[in-house]
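Try it yourself: sequence plus guanine, in.
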Amino acid sequence: MVAQLIDGKALAIKLRREIANTIDKRVAQGLSRPGLAVILVGEDPASLIYVRNKRLACDEVGIQSSYYHLPATVTTMELMNVIQRVNEEKTVHGILLQLPLPSHIDDDVLELIDPKKDVDGFHPYNLGRLAQRRPLLRPCTPYGIMKMLDSMGQQYKGKHAVIVGASNIVGRPMALELLMAGSTVTVCHRFTADLGSFVSQGDIVVAAAGRPGLVKGEWIKPGATVIDVAMNRLENGSIIGDVEFIKAKENAAWITPVPGGVGPMTVVMLLQNTLSAAISRDSVLPT
Ligand code: GUN
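Structure, out:
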């Protein structure tokens, strides 16, 4: 078997177009243009690129983005003040606080973001809603992966989903998404013994550990769906995932490429969440 590629890029383009059309229609009806406040602390090179891409994507679909680029030396109190300001700003429907934060900043600041504007879905309220199968704003990467799986007709019930990596951003919310969809879910992490014995049971495998080549191609169950979330930059500048792609492709039925798989979907789900936040606000507070 040679796996078919799951083209996240093509799906993301299609969804972006739909989001742009919906925004055009809203604005033509006199409703507010969705607004996203992007907050970046410091100069982490990868974060600078992510934030730039997210803002460009906003421009492309007609979301108004505002940018708060704070120095790495900012205090927790100063960051809290910025969050408070955008929480109250009527033209802002979504707030993105780019992670990771410098180590001197208390991670609890994430909880200050108004859950209705929490377009990353990281606030304990939004994660709690997802855990209770009553999701509101959902973490972008796992949500985007569900859209990709849905688009290729993935079945969930009676399937075993194996997630490699237990981060707050991907692994844990991914487990909640797949559980909600009806799969049996196993979450593997750095303390898991005999990773291969779990991965080889996966009808759906989601690799999100950030360790190149961690998931051996020979472990992949014939006919499995393989989603590689990782983007590991090698010394020669090339970007590879966590899965041994060439070997895994021989066993899997479906596999995501890296890059061009999950990455574009994460950005588009941020746009979708910002639009959803604006639509929800309309229902309680007309423009
Ligand atoms: N850093 C890495 N991924 C993400 C993400 O999805 N959202 C935010 N805010 N920061 C990140």
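One thing you can check immediately is this: The chain has nine helices and eleven strands.
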